[in-house]
Amino acid sequence: MKNISLIAFDLDGTILDSRKNISEHTLEVLSRCSQKGIWIVPATGRAVDGIPRKVQEIPGIRYAITTNGGAVVDLDTRKVLKSCVLSNATVLELIGILKKYHAMYDPYINGRGISQPAFIEHMDNYGIEPAIQKMIRETRYIVPDTESYVRETGYDVEKLNVFFLRPEDRELVREELKQVEGLIISSSLNNNLELNAQGATKGEALLWLANHLGIKRTATMAFGDGENDISMLKAAGIGIAMENGQDSAKAAANELTLTNDQDGVAAAIERLILC
Question: What pTM was computed for the model?
Answer without folding.
Answer: 0.94
